[in-house]
Specification:
The protein is an all-alpha fold. It has helices spanning 4-35, 41-62, 75-100. The radius of gyration is 18 Å and the shape is elongated. The chain starts with a helix and ends in a 10-residue tail after the last helix.
Length: 110
Amino acid sequence: MTPLPLLKMEVAMNGGMLAIMVLAQVIGLGVLAQKKFRRVGVIWSLIAAALDLGLLALISAAKGPQLSGAGGISDQARDLTALLLTVGPSTLVVLGVLATLPNNKADKPL
């Protein structure tokens, strides 16, 4: 008897881990934008989520069946690569834009 339910649970956990990491990144960027940069955190969270979804769609379309299976990379390595190629660039782009935006003049007292 093959451990099919355990195998399905492992696949669900791998996809769930990707979702948890992307969610943590989106929330973290929103809080950072709100607290440190005095910007609307929800907007920057949505921008980060849109970048994540776009990059994830691009990576999912680029990786094919030739990567998995015999002689290819494991599913965990493929998921980790997708996570790093999704979260890393979008975090750098959002932080770079936030750091280069000018300060809000309306927040400063006269």
